[in-house]
Amino acid sequence: MDLIYITNDISAATIAQDAGVNRIMVDLEILDKKDRQGHLNTVISNHSLKDIGCIRSILDTSQLLVRINPINKNTEEEIEEVIKQGADIIMLPMFKSKQEVVHFLELVGGRVTTCLLLETPEAVLEIDNILALKGIDEIHIGLNDLHLSTNLTFMFELLSNGTVEQLSKKIIDADVKFGFGGVARLGNENLDASLILSEHLRLNSNMVILSRDFKEKGVDMIAEIRKIRKYLDTPKNNKALMNNQHLAYKKINDIVNNIKAKSGKSR
């Protein structure tokens, strides 16, 4: 499974690469992001085009992934500069239509790996038409924006309500590499990361983004990545995966009910 770490810091990227992180992401997306997520306790990056070349210069085993802005009048120029700076993979966020994806694929022109960040309800509705296109290498389901735009309470509800599983089957059947969401350090969250990783295994996911708690002061990145790899590499039969699914969904539903209770909403 490809582990993705978001940073524009050379030192942090070097440590992540040494720890065995597969991809370092430079995150250029800023358009409309504060409007969508500004009320939440989420990270909005302040990365820039110049960061791409800086991170590129220190990578030798990890790939360089760059998330660009949603389609806009400057997309062609942005893609050209991102490719020029040495990106291996370009991720397109917040697309809503097949036409936007076609435009993105035409601009990239097969020069680097293409990754779609599926995070709008419009794109979910049009997924069959989008998957019919040639040139899509990967699709990552973005749980944060997708849960916001579908008025869910907690981003992992997209797991428990079956959305991720339904999409994963379609994406995999189209022979497109698939991943979803992010993951925290093992044993460090109310919803333990092992249950989320188990769902990645059950759904045949190949990508996950490392959450910001990997950036906390004093975190031993090498040790934490080793724990994740050990968990992923430990064989698990279908019964174990199904048991973990049940535990994860129960925990997710409990979290949702607690959030609703605190906000005064009914179940």
UniProtKB/TrEMBL annotation:
GO MF annotation: an example: metal ion binding
Family matches, as InterPro entries: Aldolase/citrate-lyase_domain, Pyrv/PenolPyrv_kinase-like_dom, Pyrv_kinase-like_dom_sf
Keyword field: Metal-binding
Alphabetized Gene3D superfamilies for the sequence: Phosphoenolpyruvate-binding domains
Keyword Metal-binding applies: yes
Domain of life per record: Bacteria
TM spans (from-to): none
Domain named HpcH/HpaI aldolase/citrate lyase: residues: 60-149
Name of the protein in question: HpcH/HpaI aldolase/citrate lyase domain-containing protein
Organism encoding this protein: Catillopecten margaritatus gill symbiont
